[in-house]
Structures are given as structure tokens and as C-alpha cells.
Records
---
Amino acid sequence: MIAGIIGATGYAGAELVRLLAGHPEITKIVPASVSFQGERIEEVYPNFQGAVSAALLKPEEVVAEADVVFAALPTGVSEAFAKACMEQGKNFIDLSADFRFDDDEATFSAWYGKPYIYPELRQRSVYGLPELKRAQIRELADRGPLIIGNPGCYPTGASLGIYPAISLGIAASGATIIVDSASGVTGGGREPSRSFHYPECADSFAPYKVGAHRHTPEISRNLAFMSRCASAAYPAGLSALSVIFTPHLAPMNRGILSTIYIPLAEACRLEQSAPPRPPAKAVTERAEEIHKRYAAFYEHEPFVRVLPQGCIASTSRVRQSNFCDISVHLDQTGTMLIIATAIDNMVKGAAGQAIQNMNIVYGFDERAGLTAIPASF
Amino acid sequence: MIAGIIGATGYAGAELVRLLAGHPEITKIVPASVSFQGERIEEVYPNFQGAVSAALLKPEEVVAEADVVFAALPTGVSEAFAKACMEQGKNFIDLSADFRFDDDEATFSAWYGKPYIYPELRQRSVYGLPELKRAQIRELADRGPLIIGNPGCYPTGASLGIYPAISLGIAASGATIIVDSASGVTGGGREPSRSFHYPECADSFAPYKVGAHRHTPEISRNLAFMSRCASAAYPAGLSALSVIFTPHLAPMNRGILSTIYIPLAEACRLEQSAPPRPPAKAVTERAEEIHKRYAAFYEHEPFVRVLPQGCIASTSRVRQSNFCDISVHLDQTGTMLIIATAIDNMVKGAAGQAIQNMNIVYGFDERAGLTAIPASF
Amino acid sequence: MIAGIIGATGYAGAELVRLLAGHPEITKIVPASVSFQGERIEEVYPNFQGAVSAALLKPEEVVAEADVVFAALPTGVSEAFAKACMEQGKNFIDLSADFRFDDDEATFSAWYGKPYIYPELRQRSVYGLPELKRAQIRELADRGPLIIGNPGCYPTGASLGIYPAISLGIAASGATIIVDSASGVTGGGREPSRSFHYPECADSFAPYKVGAHRHTPEISRNLAFMSRCASAAYPAGLSALSVIFTPHLAPMNRGILSTIYIPLAEACRLEQSAPPRPPAKAVTERAEEIHKRYAAFYEHEPFVRVLPQGCIASTSRVRQSNFCDISVHLDQTGTMLIIATAIDNMVKGAAGQAIQNMNIVYGFDERAGLTAIPASF
Amino acid sequence: MIAGIIGATGYAGAELVRLLAGHPEITKIVPASVSFQGERIEEVYPNFQGAVSAALLKPEEVVAEADVVFAALPTGVSEAFAKACMEQGKNFIDLSADFRFDDDEATFSAWYGKPYIYPELRQRSVYGLPELKRAQIRELADRGPLIIGNPGCYPTGASLGIYPAISLGIAASGATIIVDSASGVTGGGREPSRSFHYPECADSFAPYKVGAHRHTPEISRNLAFMSRCASAAYPAGLSALSVIFTPHLAPMNRGILSTIYIPLAEACRLEQSAPPRPPAKAVTERAEEIHKRYAAFYEHEPFVRVLPQGCIASTSRVRQSNFCDISVHLDQTGTMLIIATAIDNMVKGAAGQAIQNMNIVYGFDERAGLTAIPASF
């Protein structure tokens, strides 16, 4: 099978090239790049010398030649390629935000400042977070060529951390969930800028776009979807959950760590008295119970690892892998569930998840091409 | 004036040496070290070659020779030195937790696993967060030799970020405040260990001691103190505030960035409707109002900088300085105040604040010895 | 085939586990660890959770069960395991220095302070730098169980950079070659120590063991071997070459970059006049000629990449791969060849090269298990 | 005294602002910036908030108002400002290469591709490496307004490491000296580019501009100057020395470490026999002798620290200080002197040295404004 990659010279595109070049079902890679058209991918990325070799084509050429097309472009320019793919009967996996909001064009355009160009394409698109949407992806794939709206990096780690809490009735109805995340600098892309200039971000830690990051509505939409599926867990009803999301820039290349604060439902709460004391036995036991439920929830997921109690999620343990690590904690009073999730922002947060989606669409082993074991350092 | 430093070869001790060596009122430094006794400070820290030179003495010798004694020791061993100082009429500034909890021995011993050895010393001690306790420090100093319980690094950045919100009635009564912090690795001290071994923490980000860090009760106690002083701001009364605190380790040497989530009091709240939209004008204006109140609150503080709107707190901007930078934000719904604070964990979070306390005790210019301008990189 | 790994919880051992777990010919991994015996490898290295799972056995158990045995131990303790393997007819691949010096016990013991315990084992051992010794490895393997003395990390990058210069008669007879190398911190191993404590090596660069590093005699011995094979290139004879080697510690996890200064043989020299001027056309052309000869020399090597002119070796491009990248340069006067080589110290410099050796010994595809494409960041 | 800074918003300019703001003789700072004219320095560099405050003027305004003018501009644009300063009787300290080559316009233009615009200005200019040129600087200053050509960052560390070897007759006549240096990323300036984009240089080490860096002729010229002054040390004459210089980029913000290989003069050489053995007593003793001579040579220099034997130069020990640290070593054969020098590229390598030059020109204490003690981490 021939895989096409539009936007192959950006960071997510280069990860797609690397991972697809090692995918057992992919026989050829055809990359496109507007900036470097006419050059070869191994000239732009000399790390590929002797390992991957391909000329950088025009996007149209890629669409024409490939069986499946990936696009790793800025938000707002994927629709034309999606349309061409649909017309030519090819599956299209988009890493931008263009297809993440389904038919909710109002939310998309409020945050991204653009309308949908071809709104009708959303009849063929699905949000590609496999752990939430695997069944829908498969169904849609059965009906013809489809478009995957591959999730944003932050929403992936955040949503996977929150999903069991809602599905299992652990989160309080109507709660405000706080997602506090730190990302490596590759999240900012390959284009040089002051913010990502080495001396400006080395040995430094700071939040950015506080209260205003575009991944907020994507997380929020995912909470709404989870809530709709959670009626069994909330017999008395589940009032809308809201999310506050703060991203930070950490001085490292890869990884997103999200620390997620989820107020516990009445049935799960413990009210340990003030002044604060180290976690009482009841708190530790409650944490273990919830941990077990999280572990059972994700038992059959190939890429979600609920870590053993005592082991805390860290970006270093998922580096270059498609895993999402989750650790489960309670605050000392037993009223707040604290979930830490770690992903590689460029793999599970971008290129790896896109390939996982491709595997689902084509009925390949979901792990195909994504079997890299994370290194210890 | 002669300054003694017990524990001078740990990281906080070495910072005391560096800063006191440049202090205009300090004529001599006498350091002590149990591990390196008999060596010279510039042998243990060759960065001091040609700049600071002193033999490492026994702690008793330091107490005998110095006019003011600093101790940068593990928690649990300062009391004997404090007692000796009181008996010899010398001021004692302690960087451990031994004197941070005043007469609340129960909380101290619950978290640190040790009783007070000389509980009566707390009659001469005060918690040394100058922005909260300047008046009390001065009063106590007027009455004879005193003991300063220098604050923990995380509680410093957290408390300074929360203080105006409570004092000005901005925080909701009874709220749970979430403090999500990231620290550089010097916070773990100089003793080698797996956790702080370079390959284990480089290019990695992770939380630690979730729901169980010892700085939680210190922040909580500070909230209670602030609340007691805030009656004017809460005519209808202020129910107890609680805190959830999660520290993270970031791959950098210095700095603590705290992102603090403070639910807004009724009077300050805006309820922007779901689904989330980018911050409306009303939200931006409300943020500006609160920013102005924060700026006015700290107007006369020499080391607190409330940054202009649009400028976000970052650890890189306070490196090697005693500043605490604060930026003021709202979430997109206008219901949560989000405060970011940045300090250098080894300066405002340890040695610098200790010197600030000394300056207050002796009536020196509070900035003396702490005028370093943070470098741009 | 079952692979045994003694010393599996050190950094090189953990890399062996990771790489062998993905090797197509290895059906099972049996790791041993003295420090963590009784635990499981995925408990010691949680990055292996869900990907590799194995109990940590005693070394004897590993020797008994495995078909091929790797040892990643401190120098001085491998001989007993090598002996056991020879007696049980199993191949033994040793990552320490115990078998790197063949029958030159004098040099070994002068630098490592230990005699050989079983000198006779050297009749079954070979130095495992495949690009120099592939034929010898194969021959020895044909004759029964063998011992591989896997090269040191620095000598690997240094020797591969120098080899063509000697083989092709480019280096001046009798020259002193300077090897100036920088290594990532994983080279110091997993045991915590002050030198590799994060705050001591972050944001810092320094040489160590100047004029006294144990890899010097290994590089020197390799030069002697290369010289013996180079008689055709030096019809007038080749006087002994000597080496000066300086290692540096760089603030990064992986990688070794060696900058190698090789005085040019008379026939290759250009004498561009002082004062120094930017490289003249003649210098650039000479560099291109030598580049072509280097590229041709390594044309069929699976893991050596002679980079195109204009592209300079960098550790980032070989991260997690078994490649050795080489770039070819001349100084501005045209008298000194400057070779830069980059390897991942833990892969081509340790575990990867050990597996490459295993592949040669067993007649597997030399690339088996080592096909990872280096990531772009 | 009023200090003007043209190019105040580049990295070297910002360091000038920071250091001059703390200089006891400077009463006011007037900065200029073409890129940010009309803004304030504390807006461009928020680290200056509350510490330094100044409007960014036009360069002409700065020349008119200041008593002494610093320029931190790209090479090729300083001459006009130098001319204006000379006409207005003001001293001009230039951090570019425009005045580093005295009347050797041929060398300057060969490497920088530009002719001198006002060659006659060199009658009023001097190369500002104080340890080599202090007397000449003072003499020239006595005769009216002068121009300082502040040295390049690499040539500073390289020249200070080599100077005693030539002056004391330790270096072999006619030798080729190799300077292998690693720099932090601030050396690349503030302008964003691919090379200095965080993900491209983090966790990576590589050489650049091999055999072709513009600092080569500057080092070479300094060697010639040292040689002319060293006739007493070489009674038999000193043939011209040449230099090969290779810079590397290290993943850190500040610092340059140079490892310098200097072939020993006949009288100093020891010929320890091959194969290489650990350094013999004779080698260690010879190293100590040379160390003593180095230490004595720099005994009265305020900013050069010849480290005690056993202590190796490291960039971390000079961070934010004007020190140049030097450690003295021999290779194991006793034929090559290996000198390691460490400077902060932005202080002794740029802004600090410029201020040191100002102090000399005006007869201030040479340490004024440069007393910062390097921090331990």
C-alpha cells in the first residue's frame, strides 16, 4: 500500500515519514512539501540518509499516487485535499483541526477564525481518537472512503485521562475539570520563531495562551461526547462538565504531561478533615479502588497503560512510542481525583495516532508500525 | 557584621555564601559543613575560586563567631542551633521546616514525623514570608534575638500568588484552590540520587508526591492566616479555603512556576455560556480589573512584580534574582482566576528570602545584597 | 533463539533488553541483575510496561538458559561468565573492557589495574568492531563458541573516523592524531554520583580525565591494527601513529561526537599560505576528493553513513540508531584532515554494536533488530 | 557617567544593559535599537521590569547623549558610529569585528567580505583583549577619544589559554595549535533561525563551519602578536605558529569551553614510550611545573583563574561572570600541552570584557561592575 504525506517536512510530517517507512503494510511513501518541493526528504532531514529516500512532490501528485493520504498542514488548508481524496475514493487522515469538530462549524470558526469551505465533507469524517471512536471509525470505513480528523496533542492526553472517570461515574456531575499540561517544544512546529528560539526556552518553564488555547473547545467537546455515553453511570443524570485548560512550555523536545483535577462524585468522595494531614489509609484505599477501575477500563486498549500504583506517569517513559501512560491519584482529603497522563506529543499526539487510525480503517493489526518499545532514557 | 552559615555546602547554603559575600553589610562569612569540615568552601565549590575564600568550620564554631546565623540543614536538626543562638543572643534564620509551623506542633509532626524538641523556642520564632509577616518580624526583632522560619520554596510562590485574591475578596469563600507547580532540579538538593541523576530527569517532565507533599500543610496554614486578616473583604464571612498542591519536576536547574486556580467570588464571576468560546470582551475586561487590583496590592513590595497584562510569568525572567513575578489571568468562562507565579527556588525560594528577612530584622535596606538584575537568558 | 543479558538493569543492559525484544530472531529474553534480582525488568524500568516482561534471574541461571549471552558489567567481572559460556558451548558477547585487548594483558592491566584471570580465554575472543574485524569474527565463529570483546563507545566513533585515512594512505606516516570527543551523560552509567547529578552537568560543558582516559590505549591499539593492514597504501612504510584523546561531558542524554584531527600525508597536503584566508578552491576540491574516497571506502557498510559534503555529523541525527555518521573536512590551510563522527553511545557505542556482532556470528542479516530509523528530533 | 548602547536589544546588548545598570560609575543608560525603537527596554526584555527602565532611542540620539558609547551590532555597520564618536570626542567600544584587525584590512575583508569604510579610524583603535593589550589601551586612552575593537568570544578563551605557553617558551616553535571549542547557543544571537530553533539543537552536539570560521584569523593574528613579544623566551627564534580552530554547538545557553592542543617545545617535552600507558610520574610532575608557570603568569590578572591541579575548567563555574578559567594538562606521552579554558561567552566573551575595557580606559577599578560571583549551578 502506498502512503502519501502532504506537509512531509514539518515535524509531524517527518514523524509520519519515519513511522510509515517502518510499517509492514506500507510498500512506498510519497511525500509532498510546498517549502522544499523538488528536494529529497533525506536532504531536508539528513537523519533519513540511508534509511528513507524519496523526492518531495506536489500535493496533487501525492493524492494521485497514494492509496491513503495523510496531511500534516496548518489548520485551514486541508479541505481541498480531503475533497480530492473523497472524489478519487481514497482515505484521508488529517492532522490539522479542520475535521475535529464534526458538524459543529460554529465552535470551529469561533476558535480558528475560518468557516468550513466544504461543510458536506463532515458526512464522511470522524474524530479519530480510537479509544473513544473505534466503532464509529470502523463503521464509516465500511461505507467508503472516509476522512479522519486526527485529535490535537493536548486533547489526546487529557481525554484519555478523563474518559474512565466519566464512563464509570467517578467524576462529579456538573464539575469543572482542570487540565494543567506541559509540552515539549516540538509541539510548536519546525518554523523558527522567538518563542521557540533555544535561548528563550532552555532552562525555562512558563504557561502560554492561558484561558485561551484552541484545544480547550476540543477537550470540552470530548467531555460532552463522553457524557452522552455515560447515562448508565449517572442514573440521576449528569449535568454538563466544563474544562479549564492551561498549557505550559517545558524545556524538552518531546512529550506532554497532563495533570488533571477531577472532582469526585458524591459516592466516591471522602471528607478528610482540615488541617491537612498526610493521606489517611482510607484515602490510599480509595485511590487503589479507583486505580483498579481505571486499569480494568483500559485493559484491552493496545496503547493505554494504566501504571501500577506507586509509579507516576512521566514523559520520558513514552518517548518515541504510541503509548499513553496514566497514573491515578487522590488529593490528601479524598475529594479530588488527580490523573496524570503522559504521551509523546509527536506520536500518540500526532503521527502515531494517525497511523493507529489508518490501521483501524484498513483492518490491520492496530499495533502495526507502532511497536517501538520506549527507551529507558 | 559576621554571617555564619551552617550547612554551607548544600545548594541553599552555597547560595547563601554567594549572596552574603556580596552583601554590603556583611564583612565576613563563616561557613560550617559536616560533610566537608576542614576543607575550604572554594575547594568544594570551585566556582568560588578567587571570589570567596573561607575554611569550613564546625557548627558550634560558627555560632560562636557569627553575629547572625543561617542554617540550611535537613528538617529536624536546627533546633539545637536555634537554642544556642538564643542563649548567645544571636538571631537565627532557619531554612528548614523546623520553625515554619509556629506552635502547631501537631501539623508539623504529622507531616515530618518528628516532635518539637524545644517547643518553647516558638515564642521567639516567626514565619519569614516578608510580604505576609513583615510587621511581626520587625516587632519580634525589637524584643531581642529571634528565630526566622524561612518559608518553603513552593509555599513562597503559591502564597504570594493567592494573597491578594483573599485579601481583596476576589477568591470565593470556601473554595478549593489548586496549586500546580513545576520546579527545577536544584530543589532536590546536592545529594546524588536516582531521581535527580541527569539521564533520569533530562528531557522529561513528571509530577511527584501527588496528594502527599509536605508543602501542602504550609500553604494551607498560610491560607488560614490570610483568611483571618481578610474579614473586611468578606463582610458575610469567609469559610475555610482548602488547597490541593501538585509538584512536578522540570528539566532545568532553577525556578518554580506555579499555576494557581482560584474560584472567583460571586461578585467577580462572569458566567460565559457553554460551549466554550474564546474569551469575550467582558472576560478580558474583568481580567484587567483584577490585574489592576493585584498590581496595586503589591505596589510597594520590593520583590514582587505584577507583570503587565500580556506578559506571562516565566522562570527564566527571575533566574538568580529575588523577584517573584506574577501574571493575572481568567479562564474563558470568567469563573476561575488563574495566577501564574515565578520565583528562583534557590533565591526567593530559599537563600535570597533568608537574606531579605535578615535585612528586615536589622533594619537594612530590604534590597541590600539582593539587587542582582535577572539576566535575559 | 534465547538471549541472556547479565547486568540487564544498567543503561547498556536496558538498551540490550529493548533492542533484543524487537529482534526478529530472538524468541525470548532472560535478564539477570545482581542489584534487582527477584524483581521484574518492567518494575525497574517502567518504560517496558506492557512491552517487555521478564523476571530478573541470577547470572548462572541466565547462562544455563540462554543460547547467546550478553554481559553489560563493570570491567573485571566478565571472565567467569565467559568461561562458563565456553564450557557450555555458548557464544558470549561482553560489553566491558575485559576482552578488548586480546593477548595484550600488559596494556589491559596497566590501565584497568587488574590482571587477566583466565588469559587462555583470549584464544576464543575477538575484538568486535565489525567494520575492522568482520572477517575474523566470522572465522572464529565457524570454529566453535566465541567471545566478543565489544568495543568502547569512544573508540568506536574514533576508529571508524580514522580507518579510511590510514587504509587509503591519507594520514601522514608517524602522525599524532587528536581525538576530541563529547559524550552524553548516559555514558556515565546508571549509578547516581555527583558528576552526573542533574544540576552539576546541566547547562555545562567540560573535559574530564584529560590525558588519562582508558579508551586511549584502545584507540591506539586500533590504529596499530589499521596500520598493519595498510602496507599497500604506504609503499615507503608507515611509522607508528599515536593518539591523544580528550573526552568531554555534554549536557545531553545520548550521543558521542568526535572531532578528529589527522595530519595529511605529503601527497594529500596543500600548503595554503599564512595569514589564514577562507578555504581556497583548491582546499575545497581536495576535501571533495577525500570525501569521495571515504564514501567509497564505506559504501557497503550497513551502519556507516558518510554524509554528503555540506552536511556535518551531529549526534541528533543518529539518536537511538546504530548508525555512525561521518563528515569529512579540511582545515583552511589544507594540511589537516578533520573528521567528525557521530554515534549513539548506547547503540553503536554499546548495545547495538553487540547485536550487530551477534548477527554476524549467527549469520543473520547484519541489520536485524537494528532497523530503527533515527527520528528527526 | 552616561553609557550609550547601540544594538541594545540583541543578546550582547542586553547583557551590556544588565551589567552597566549595576556599574557603580554609570549613572544613566541610554539604549538604542533599530528593531524596537520607540518601545522600552523592559518591554522587550521583561526580565528588566522593575530593575532597568529606559526608552529605546535612535542611535544618533545615543551618540549625542552618552559619554561612552558601546555598539553591539553585526559586523560592517559600526564604522559610522565610531566616526561620529571620534568627532564628538567620545570613546567608542565596538563588539563587532570591525575594529579587531587593526590596519590589516586585507585579512578583515577576506573573511568578512567588506572593505574598511574609514580606514583612518584604525589610528585611534586598539584590540581590546586587556590581558594582552592593557598597556596599549591605556596609552591610547591618554591621547584622546579611542575605539576599542572588543575581541570575539572564541578568540578570547583561545588566546588566554595559549598566551602563557608562547610567552614562557613552552610552545614548540613553528607548531600547529589546535583549538577545539564548544559554545552555548546564545552565541548565535537573538534572531530566530533553524540552526538555533530549540528542537534542532536540544540534546544534540555538532561542529559547524569546520575549517572556515571567521574567528580563525583573529586567533591567528593574536598568536602572531604574542610571538612578537616572546623573543626572550625563544633565544633561537620562534617560527610562525599556526592555528586550526573548530567550533561546536552545545545544548546550553551560555559558555565557551576551549580545549587547546599545544605541541611542547623541545625543552619541555617528555617522550613516554608507546604503547600508551597511564601518565607516568614524570608526566604528572611536568604538568605541575607548567601549571605553576601558568599560575604565576596570570597571578595579577583580576579575571583569569588558573585552577588548582585536579580541578578542570567547566563552563558552569564561570556562568554570568567575567572570569576566564584555565586548567593545565599534559597528554599521557608528555609531548602535548592540553589547556582547557572556560568563559561565559556573553560576559568575558562580549559584554563583560567591553566593560572591563571601559574600566581601563577611564581608570576605574578594572573589576567595577564585574564583581558578580559565579553561582554554583
---
Amino acid sequence: MANIQCAEEFFMANEALRHFRPTQASIPPREVNYRLRLPSGVPVHIHALNPLAFLLRAAQVYPSKLALVHPDVPHPVIYSYGVWAQRVQNFAYALIQAGVKPTDRIAIIAPNTPAVAEAYHGVLGARAVICAINTRLTHGEVAYILEHSESKLVFVDHEYTHLVKGAKVPVVVINDNGREDDPYEQFLTSGRKFSGERGWPGLEWERNEDAPCALNYTSGTTGRSRCVSGYEALSAFFRELRMGLQIGLINAPQARRLERPVRAIIAGSAPTAHLIGELEKINIVPIHVYGLTCTYGPSTKCYYQPHWMSLSLEERAKLLARQGHSFATAEDARVVFQLKEGEIPDAPLVDVPKDGKTMGEIVFRGNIVMKEYFKDPEATCKAFRGGYFNTGDLAVWHPDGYIAVQDRSKDIIISGGENASSLAIEQELATHPDVLEVSVVARPHPKWGERPMAFVILHPQKAAKWKGRHAEFEQDLKKHVRGRLPGFACPEWVSVVDELPKTSTGKIQKVELRKLVAKL
Amino acid sequence: MANIQCAEEFFMANEALRHFRPTQASIPPREVNYRLRLPSGVPVHIHALNPLAFLLRAAQVYPSKLALVHPDVPHPVIYSYGVWAQRVQNFAYALIQAGVKPTDRIAIIAPNTPAVAEAYHGVLGARAVICAINTRLTHGEVAYILEHSESKLVFVDHEYTHLVKGAKVPVVVINDNGREDDPYEQFLTSGRKFSGERGWPGLEWERNEDAPCALNYTSGTTGRSRCVSGYEALSAFFRELRMGLQIGLINAPQARRLERPVRAIIAGSAPTAHLIGELEKINIVPIHVYGLTCTYGPSTKCYYQPHWMSLSLEERAKLLARQGHSFATAEDARVVFQLKEGEIPDAPLVDVPKDGKTMGEIVFRGNIVMKEYFKDPEATCKAFRGGYFNTGDLAVWHPDGYIAVQDRSKDIIISGGENASSLAIEQELATHPDVLEVSVVARPHPKWGERPMAFVILHPQKAAKWKGRHAEFEQDLKKHVRGRLPGFACPEWVSVVDELPKTSTGKIQKVELRKLVAKL
């Protein structure tokens, strides 16, 4: 069988895999043509970019190479590129057989399993739009998304069927065992049957590069926002990167320096200089990227400059904590002055000076930006003010051209007329050795209007040390940051907590902290 | 100065560089905006791909990194990305000042010097079309190209001014010393003055991805053929790769095995298994690519399969000598049956079976294919038969999907009704230890119609051995290939020569050999 050859080491490592065989429908025919059918009238020297091309090439050139392994489950599966591509092809045909038309939405609710990877490609094969729903959402949120997206079909991992109870949409359950009796496998088999072995040439190549391919409902602060994005499939793979990962790493008692440097991507929210420094200590090279769902995830990177090597860890970490420059795939990222009261919305955007001080809003444009907010032209128009996507993130622009996020616009604390960046405050508080995580929000103040309030999680190994002495810790922490922050930015209140409210993507929900503050 | 920091090692290595400073006009202003002006009405989520973007990004992110060094000349030059980008910008403005409009052709005749790299980018900046003319062409050929291309301006390296004597086109001479008194430098300076420091935003971003950017006159067998290609600038850098390189390497008496493997690209014409084997012996890892000027150079690659490692050198070399699969940038490469007599030209193309035997023609399509033959719609239409670019190269398709070139259609030798591939014959002759280079053409034969005749250059160290005994060598060579080739493919005649006629790009001119044969 095709996939055995390159998968030897995995069979060795995982006895269970030895016994796995893909379903009959997953085995490609002897001679395969890995080309989609071209629509007529396409010039010889032009082909529309299509994310499916990556998989088709892999299957064409390296059919027996290991594509996908899913070992740590009761029923491990393993697929070569040849087999995996066949499954994707089956998926596409099964959708078409089910009556799915180009631009129809197809929903999926599943953890990181083979079915998700197959859905992302199979939906493209049918020229439909994938709508991946976060497994951490509630039944109500899922119901809303299914209705709003008008999904024609929803795939659900067997662990999450409760999220689609009572859904009016046809449901395909994924038992995630790769066996003939898995409803999901039966769905794929039906596609293979329906294909009549027309293979890839039986599916049409999407000639319109601007055709939608993904409908993403963000778990961001706008609650039920949503965006349709164009072809940029690869970047979707960044989705799962979170800050939590790394914080857990450096605080694990068994953490020790790695023999060889390991590159790790940091995304989700701006890392503290403290975190980056700690990562370097255990030989993890942090690659700091920044972006939003509406820019397809990461779209800036803090490009490392050789001469930074000569700097102290703390200096270097501060530079690395900046968001940097736009990706090659993002045509442009700028920091511009925000729209002032009474200003006409389509006034040309004006860059803030590259002085590392003047705060403005980060804006993006280019192939990496979402196409629109689905069914919400008004929000789209607002977000695209000045011909750029307005992120709502506040930043400064440094003389070396590096962008550094300061805050979400609404997270700014206006203390005695001064703008205090809650992020900047958090970064300094996080340098206290006993602080594990910290979040800062504005709290109303009779004299200064607003003052910063800090919510702190103590380092597990230090919690005991301050037990019953939180007032002392508060003093110690304030003392620690005094020299490091301007007076107006020093936290007025510090509250030690056991956990911080987070979104399903691991971002701290400041809106929840504000509710707490409001009750004080 | 910006470029000093990263260029230290070069200053150390080359004393002369220490004294070089770029012209005033080459120093970028303190604050630079590396973005071209966007034409109005471009959607936020779309940006046309533009090869200039690579340079602009490099200059934005790494302004002081070493971009370009030209050390081994009387007046060495060295530029950082910041400085080099400024020079390119000056180039673009100077063209506009000279009245150059989008799609106008700009010619350049120069060896591998900084001016060439600057021209390739500067011409894009002015949205004009670069026409790089081969320095090995004759005065007459150059005159034809300048006239046919209607070039508005021609840049000529000081060593090649004789090629443009009497040209009606305005000429800018390049003294290649980077000094204020170099006419080329004065041209750049005039551009900087004309720019009024509007910088990159003073130049418009080309919104049409299908706009022409290069007009290439091939030195191929069609003599004065020419093609206009769309944006694919990077691949243009492959231009200079030649087989000659490697043949010289393996035959150099001082050749010895390298400590670490070095990747080397083989292109220009199909390498013999013998050559690949010899390269591996000295630890050079050959990357075999194949393509034509009209597919922007390399467009297939012989992708290496892990399990080939277990094969013998000769077996592996035979596999590596194949042309392989299309690049990611080439949507598709196929081997199809050639147009038969009386067949309608726009009949759909039919793939040859993947049996490694049936011969067909290699065809390409996709973003890497040229746009058209300039001013020759008829030739374009013929070349694009069936919606693909027809290369005229004959090949077989192996069961593993690898394409293997057999011959140019007209180089096939029809001996006793059998099709003999001159390339296949050459590959076997080249395995004789005393053979340095060999070329085979058809020679009329009273009984068989045609029979192969081989022209052989002896290995320098073996020439003495066979001095005055060429007849014996001929027998020895025939004996060597007898078992390896079918009878009809064994050369009937062998002629030992001192050199083989070659084109300016290093390809053997079989047309010249045929003239010799005709005289016999």
C-alpha cells in the first residue's frame, strides 16, 4: 500500500498504526491525474492561484510520503499524500452529490483531527466555502452561526454532537477512527462512488482568485462578527497558535534548556519582554507574529536584526516584543492617525511619525485581508475606511520602521488626561519574578478620571510565599514598577486572582474584568 | 553609511572596497516610504503581485544588510539594500524623465554587473519592459533586436559599445565603476533630481498582473524568435546556468571531493547519467531542472525521492537525468501526442501513456509561460496549440509521473523505420571513460534511410592515448555501446573533433553538424 514505505518509523513508534489500513474508497486508482478541469477560455499563460494546488503537487510528486498521522487516539490513522488526496477528492464529490453548489457554506465542528484537514481541502474541491466553528463555543453560539452562515451541511466530531442538538442543518458525525463503519467514512465512500472515477479532472478549477473560500466567525471582542476571506489557505494553519502555550512552558518546573534551538511562533496577543527573555533562556527562539482573523491570522513579523545579538537579553527582548513589519503576503501595514470627531470617513489616512511615541491605529491592505463582513456591508465599509482594513489596535511606529502595539483602542486608560497603555503596564508588571500572568484595565477615579487596576495571577511556586499577605505583595509589586512606569501609569489597585477570564482562543476578556471593576 | 555595518567581512576580504562610497544620489533620505502609489479603485483585499515588492521589502526590513557586491573589478562597488533600492528608484525616475511610458522597451547589453540588476528592477519601477540582449550576439543580431523591439533606450557596458555602433537608439554607456563621472551614474543622478524626492510613492504600482515586463530574444534554434512574458522576475535569475559549468568541473584534473555537499543546479540541456554520477562523486548534489526561455527558464525539476538513496550510483543517476515534474509556478506540464498530418490544430491534446516508452511532445501552461511571440500572432497561435505551450521537445512519461526528454523533434534519427533518440545515444556514448563531450545527428544512409553519426571530443588526459589511432577508438566506442543500445541506434560513424559548434548560451548547434554531414 502506498503509504507504508515512508511511514516505517511511525509504525515502529506506534504499534497500533501497524494494524491500520485506510478504507477501500481511500486507495487511489493505479493511474491518477492530479489536475482539476480547466474552465474554457483561460489564457495559456495564466492560472488562478488555488490552495488545492499544494496538495495535488504533493500527491503527484511524493504519493507515498507521509502526509498525515493521528496516533494518540484509540484508533490511530495514518495517510500518505496519495491516500489523503484521494480522501479529499472523495470529500469534494460527496459534497457535490449532496447538492452543494459553489459559494455554499459547509460547517465543521471538530478538534485538530484529519477530518478538519480533509474538509478544508475537500470544500475547496467543490468550490464551496468552509465555515470552521470553534469547539469552545456554546450551543447557542453554534446555533447562531449555523443559521447566519446558512450552512448546507455540518460535520461534527463525535465529542461535540451536543453542540448541534436540534440543528435544522443535515449533520455528518465524525467518529474519527478511519473505519468503514464511521459515518464520516461512509460519506467519503459515497463521494468516491458518485465520482464514477472521473477523478480530479471531474472537478473544476476555480478561475476566480477572488472567490470566497472561508467564512470565519471570530471569538473576538465584537462577539458575533464574521468575515469572508479569499484564497490564503496556508495561513489558516497558524490558527492554533496561542500565548498560553509558551507561558505554560517557561513556568513548568521541569523546564530546562534545550540542546538545540527550537523555533516557536508567538501569536495571539503581544508577548511580554519577560516571556521572550524566559523562552530564550531555555533555548526556544521566539518568532513573534501578529495579526487578526480578518487578516487571516499572522500578518506582521518581528524580523530579527543581526546586530540585536550584541544587545542584553532585556534590551533584545524589548525589541522582539514589537510586532515589526508586514508579511510579504500583506502588501502594506501602517500606523495612521485615528478618525477624529467630525472628520469625513473617507479622508486619506495619515501616517503617524516614526518616533516610537505617537500613537495611531494599525491598518492593513492586500491579499491577506478579508474580503468582507458577511451580510454586513455597513460594518465592512467602516472597517475599510481609507482603503485599508482598520484593526482597532493602537500602536506606535519606531524609527527603524517596526510597529509596536500599545493597546486595543478601548483598552487605553486615560489617567489625568494622559494616555496610559494597559499593555505597556502589563509588560512591566510581568517582569516581577512572582507574577505568572497579569491584566490591567481602567477603573474610575474621582480625581484622575481613570486609574489602572491590575489583576494578577501569582506564579504557582510563589503563591504560598504571599498567602494571606496580598497587601504586602501589592506594595512589593508597586515598588517594582515605580521607576519603570510614568506615575500616571502605575497601577492604583492590585488584585491577586486565581484565574483570568479568557476567550475560546485564549485571549483575556477585559470586558469581564471591567464588569468586576464596575461592581467595586 | 548604511551598508557598512553588515559589509564588514567584505571590507576585510577586499581592501579596495574599503575606499568605495556610493554616489550622493545613491544615499536614501533619512525617512523612506517603501510603497509604490496605488492606482485608485483597488479593493482593500487585493494587491497585484509585483516583483519589485521583494526589493522594497528587503530595503524596508533590512536597509543596512548587504545587497550587492561587485569586488573583482578595477573599481569594486558594494551596496546595502537601502542604497541599492535608492539606485533602482533613481533608475525608474530617470526613465520617466527620458519620456519612457509604460510598456515601452528598454534594452541593456552588459555582463553580470550591478547595472543589470538595477535595470531589471528600475524598468519595472517605470512600468516599462526590459529587453536584455545577450553579449555574445553579433553587431547585426543586436541591430535587428534593437529595431524589432523598438527599444526607446539602450544601456551598454563599456566593454560592448562596439555592438551598438551606429545604433539609432539613444545609448547610455555603463563604465561599471560606481563613480560620479560614470555616464550611467550621471543617468541615475538625473533621475534622483527629477524625482523631487517624491520617492517610491511617486511611482505607480502596476495593477495589471498581466502587464508585460520582459522581452527576451532567444538564441535558440529558431534564430530570431522572441517572447514577451508576464511577471515572474525571480526565475529570470536562472538565466545564467549552463551545462558547461559542470562538465568543466568534473574533468578538471584538480577536482576533488568536497567536504560538505554543495547543491548545484543543472540546466540548459539534459545532463547525461555519466555527468550526474561524476558530480556526486565530488559531493556536488545535482538539482536537475529543465525549461525554455518561453517558460521563463527552468519549469520542471527532477524531484529527488528518498528511496533512490538505496539504488546504485548508475541507477540513481539515470533517474536523476530525467526532467521530472513541473514547478509549483508552472500549473501543468504534460507529454502529449504530436499533431498528426491533417489533424485540426485545436483538437484537444491527448496524453501519451505513462509507460516510459511512448514518445510525445512536452507542453506547458500556467503563470510561468510566456505571454506571446512579440509582433507574431501566427507563431503564438501555433505555439499555443490546444491551450498549452508546445515546446517541440520530445519526451516519454514514466510510470512514476516523471517526464524524460528524448530529443528535439527534429533531432530524432529515423533509422530503418525506427525512431532513435539522438540524446539517448549521446547518453550512452558519454559513459565511455575517454569521452568528454559528444553530439549525435542523423546522416543519410542508402539502406536504412538514416543512421546516427557521432561527433566526439576526447577527454584532455586521454587525447594523447588515441593520437593517430582514431579508427581504433571508433571501434572501442562502438564496442562500448553495443550492448547498451538497440542496433538501429548504434552510431554508424564516429568522428573525433577538437570542439563542437555551440550557441551563445552553450547549446550544441546540431544544425552546424548537419551541414558538415551534408558535405560528406
